[in-house]
Amino acid sequence: MSRIKIFDTTLRDGEQSPGVNLNAVEKLEIARQLERLGVDRMEVGFPASSKGDFEAVKRIAETIKETSVAALSRSVQSDIDTAWEALKNAEDPCLHLFIATSPIHMEYKLKKTPEEVIETAVRTVSYAKERFSEIEWSAEDASRSDLNFLAEIIEKVIDAGATVINLPDTVGYTTPKEYGDMFRFIKENVPNIDQVCLSCHCHDDLGMAVANSIAAVENGATQIEGAINGIGERAGNASLEEIVVALKIRSDFYPYTTGLKLNEIKRTSNLVAKLTGMHVQANKAIVGRNAFAHESGIHQDGVLKNKETYEIITPEMVGVNVDNLYLGKHSGRHAFKEKVKEMGYKLSEEKLKEAFQAFKSLTDRKKEVTDDDLFTILMDVQIDT
Ligand code: KIV
Ligand code: ZN
Predict the structure, then answer these.
(1) Interface predicted TM-score (ipTM)
(2) What is the band of 385 on the pLDDT scale with cuts at 50, 70, 90?
(3) Could you tell me one molecular function GO term of this UniProt entry (predicted)?
(4) What are the beta bridge partners of residue 199?
(5) Which residues surround ligand 1 with Cβ inside 6 Å?
(6) What are the residues whose beta carbons fall under 8 Å from the beta carbon of 171, sequence distance 6 or more?
């Protein structure tokens, strides 16, 4: 089994979802949960893009200690300087530098020749290396780039100091076979590639982001990037929860492990949905409301006889509690306290009182208080500080 790193970009690429705008307190709350989930690195913003994002990145960098914190930067010195100011107090900071490498992006967006793009990439990686020891370098629109050009620029940025090479499918255009072939080509044609971590980053425009990410891993990628609930630009990023659970459930087929605590998945999904306002569709794999619901008589009958007839993932594995302590309008403070403990939260007496009151008023309106409802109450109580 080889260990695959998980790079979470919910708070950067995920936050680029139309209509989503998280403030620093909300970002920090999600960052704490991502730390609990056990991602290897979290990309939390683009400091040069706004003062608010700068402050959010800085605050997270100063708070999160167990997980590496990354921030995005264009290949310009002023962006790198701003990112350093935001990240310098992080325990394990990482700069994420990107520049486009496809003919269409170089000609129309950057208005640079391929030689100028190589020069800019090498110069900015070398400049960043004066401060950052960890530098992820991304070839934006890699999946529509010329493979020989990609191999040439990658070799040079590794020599300049990049420690992670990321090959994004920026526009969600590739297919599993094509994307996998690109990774194999880079593994076979870049002499210094084994010095770095090789990363994939997929968008879901054609609904293939998860399959493409897994194809990349099968062809040499050692890091997967994605977002919780698959949020992000346009159709979104690869759904991290789908990838890690697929690798786990089909470990007979995929010899890879990740460091994620799978039973923190549902809680993370709920928090991201609540704070971004991007609700999860009911039939979404792993985290949708119906992901474990069996409706037809034949299925229900089968599951009652043996769960494995129709259930390939247990709800408990991903943190969905189906038969845990039930709370309703007759539940008292003691049961409520136990439940909060069971859900993994520690609240002060004052916060507990506040949460209990919110719970009681909800039971006046709602017969059945679900774990999702309680989670929302607990998040409100923690965030309103
Ligand atoms: O999709 C993309 O190309 C990106 C880059 C900034 C890495 O998000
Ligand atoms: Zn992206």
Answers:
(1) 0.99
(2) very low
(3) manganese ion binding
(4) 166, 223
(5) 13, 98, 138, 140, 168, 170, 201, 203
(6) 141, 143, 144, 203, 205
